[in-house]
Write a structure and sequence with these properties.
Elements (H helix, E strand, L loop, with lengths): L8 H7 L3 H11 L7 H28 L4 H134 L4 H125 L9 H23 L3 H5 L1
Helix pairs in contact: 2-4, 3-4, 4-5, 5-6
Length: 372
């Protein structure tokens, strides 16, 4: 507690407050605590009372100091003495109030942090579950694609085996045709040799028969060659058809694979888009909930403040009515008629001071003053 400075008794009346009144305030407010709603309100009202006294003393100090420097010094000294007395009381009460306010702020911050942590944990759990579900779906899809790839590989091996069989059949057919042609040529050669020997012995008599036989053999050879050419063309055509069929099947399988890949990419893209939309929806819902909670807390705080203001206004109403009536009496004071310029200035200053004092009295207990 600061040292008490004696107040000039000649100036006490000018400030409207006495040292005894301030001491009484200090003794009355010393036992107040802010750790209960009622005590908190009493501390707040006591702070407002001290602040009102201090502010009114400061304002009156400036008014009293206007006429003379010496008077101003005495006014300042009295104001300082009053301020020195009232400020420790106000500071002590303010510390009590601040302790409760800080405790409430810490509790509110801890609650908000806990709610935020719970929300973040819930969002993380949902995100982990969604990622696990997508991973399972991707794994299942990869297994399905692997099965399709294995089926395509088996089909390709089957087609390769069929192509190899057709190629072997074609080669065997070509070998058979070559063997037949060689056999026919061998028989023809042997026949020619036999005929030549026979012709050598019987050339004269069998000239006509030899020519006929030769013509017949040439016709047979031509027919055999044509037959072999037809068989070779048929084999080539069959092989080409088989090759075309195999190529067509390969192209169809490749087209099916590409279509399956496209459908799978589109499905995975749709799944990812849905996951993003769900995440955005969850974040929007969380933000809406945070905004709603903040708005509700602000509304509750404002309602409490308004309730406190109303309670204070109701408590001050009897005193306010008296002060307003007193202000009316001040405004009704008859102003003396003076002629000296200094007296006129003094009267004008007094009238202004009375008006300001009356206005201050009329502001006491108003919603604006209590809210401040």
């Amino acid at each position: 507690m600061s040292q008490i400075v004696p107040i000039d008794p000649h100036l006490v009346v000018s400030y409207g407050v006495t040292e005894a009144q301030i001491i009484a305030k200090r003794e009355a407010y010393a036992s107040l605590t802010a750790d209960t709603p009622k005590g908190y309100e009493e501390v707040r009202l006591a702070i407002a009372d001290c602040r009102t006294t201090r502010v009114s003393v400061e304002k009156r100090r400036k008014e009293l100091k206007a006429d003379a420097l010496d008077f101003g010094r005495r006014v300042d000294a009295a104001a300082k003495a009053i301020t020195v007395l009232i400020e420790p009381i106000e500071a002590e009460l303010q510390e009590k109030k601040d302790a409760i306010d800080n405790a409430k702020a810490r509790a509110r911050a801890e609650k908000e942090a806990a709610e935020k942590a719970a929300l973040e944990a819930r969002i993380k759990a949902e995100r982990d579950a969604e990622e696990a579900r997508l991973a399972a779906e991707r794994k299942a899809e990869e297994s399905r694609l692997a099965a399709i790839a294995e089926q395509q590989r088996v089909e390709a091996e089957r087609l390769a085996a069929e192509r190899a069989a057709l190629e072997a059949a074609r080669k065997a057919e070509e070998d058979r045709i070559a063997a037949v042609r060689a056999e026919e040529e061998k028989r023809a050669r042997l026949a020619r040799e036999a005929e030549e020997r026979k012709l050598a012995e019987e050339r004269a008599v069998q000239e006509a028969a030899l020519a006929a036989q030769k013509a017949h053999q040439e016709m047979v050879a031509r027919e055999e060659a044509a037959k072999l050419a037809r068989e070779r063309a048929d084999a080539d055509a069959k092989l080409a058809a088989e090759r075309a069929k195999i190529e067509s099947e390969r192209i169809a399988l490749e087209s099916q694979r590409r279509e399956a890949d496209r459908i799978e990419r589109e499905r995975l893209a749709a799944i990812e888009m849905e996951r993003v939309r769900e995440a955005e929806a969850r974040e929007l819902a969380a933000k809406f909930e945070r905004d709603r909670v903040a708005a509700e807390e602000a509304r509750v705080a404002e309602a409490e403040r308004q309730a406190q203001i109303k309670s204070r206004l109701d408590a001050l109403k009897p005193d306010r009515d008296k002060l307003v009536e007193y202000a009316g009496r001040l405004r009704a004071i008859e102003i003396p008629a003076v002629h000296d310029e200094a007296a006129i200035a003094m009267v004008a200053a007094t009238v202004d001071s009375i008006a300001e004092l009356a206005a201050a009295l009329e502001r006491f207990g108003t919603a604006e003053e209590v809210a401040a």
